[in-house]
Amino acid sequence: MSDEIKRHLLSLLEPCGQTHLLHFWDSLIAAEKERLATQIQAVDWPKVTAWAKKLLDPAASEAAGIPFDRLVPAPYQPLHPETPKQEEFHKASIARGLEMLRTGKVAAFTVAGGQGTRLGFSAPKGTFPLTPLRHKSLFQIFAEGLLRLQEKYGTTIPWYIMTSHVTDAATREFFQTHGYFGLNPANVRFFAQANFPAFGLDGKALLESPSSLVLSPNGHGGSFAALKDSGALDDMEARGITTLTYWQVDNPLTIECDPLFIGMHDLSGSDMSSRALIKRDPKEKLGHFCMLDGHLTIVEYSDMPDSLLYQQEADGRLRYRAGSPAIHVLSTAFIRRMTGADSASLQPHRANKKVPHITLDGAQVTPEAPNAIKLELFIFDALPFARNPLVLEGDRAEQFAPVKNKEGNDSPESSRDALLHRTQRWCQLAGIPFPQKADGSPDAIVELSPRSFVDVEDLAAAKDRLPPITAGAQLYLE
User: Fold this and answer.
1) Is residue 215's pLDDT more than 60?
2) Tell me, what's the pLDDT at 62?
């Protein structure tokens, strides 16, 4: 039987020049052979090898393929209406979004395949303890927020969480250990995204060990296939869900179900809608919303030439100022289409990495410089295939404070600071006095429970029962 399996694997690998992956086959025990065979058979080798070959071609850099002379900035809806027509659209959108939430048309979708490696944290990033007083994890922040939203709108909002092969088991265990943070487990669904093999700079797939490939998650663009292959998309459709709100697990400020955004998406007949942040400076690391030959697309900051990055409007604003924080609304019908007739539309991007692996003589390689590429699919590459794609301006202070780095920008410290400033702002808008220092910064550490407060409206309704906030206080409000 082992010889038969080997012949089958060779038939998959030989046309793609990857037979070296079976170099150690005859020395493996049965369980190791089964593991390697399973990994190999899960890969579409003709497609993936062709992708790797293309991305390794020195003449095929991603920026080289962009016709910058045909690129223009994408239009976007302003967050605050500027004309009577926009005012009317905003009001209608909020009403429509509320109706969709209350009638169970909306689900939540979080991509959570990464570990907190850059944070010095080896567990799934969603389990990272973030809040200043109760040390609630990112997952708990989102779970409690969804509980409050379900209560607020008298509905059920199913939550779909995409993990990876490195985070799936630990994520499931984390939720079980914490009783799903009060959510009904029947309405929380986990599924893992697929993997791609890593390739050396010679185009050969790498071995992690004699019985295992070097594998990595296929990127957030793998969401579409993972939703379909896991049965999650079928589950959504069976529940009557038409709309999915999408965010990445490292952003605790995300508005999980924004009626304005959801309603604007639906009234526009959009397949895929996106939030935009106005860039702080030309070099901020956000992809740019652009139009290319009539199609919405995102051009990565690293691919944009300085001649465009620094262009300004007559009023001094950046011309290419709308950047992507990876917050979207998706129609389930579009997801179905992207996993059917348009399933071949997404093309991977190249990530240069330092990838430990073994050589064919069994030696362990621990590189000090990038020695390989990993392939990643990006969800925003679906935008050119979306009908009526909508871009809506977002409020950075209200919606975006990612946890990516151990310190500095986009770190736990900067994210906690953003949460505190948002709490101060909400209190002031709700008519709750909040002590502040001479420079206007908060002079108290106040943590709001998402289980009770998901917006200013919630805080205003509770202000008469909340204790006063005094200078220097550390206060948890629920």
Assistant:
1) yes
2) 53
Residues 205/217, Cβ–Cβ less than 8 Å:
no
Domains of the chain: 1-41 (no CATH), 44-406 (3.90.550.10), 411-478 (no CATH)
pTM beyond 0.85: yes
At residue 1, does pLDDT exceed 60? no
Contact (CB, 8 A) for 219 and 377: yes
Q: Is 342 a residue whose pLDDT tops 80?
A: no
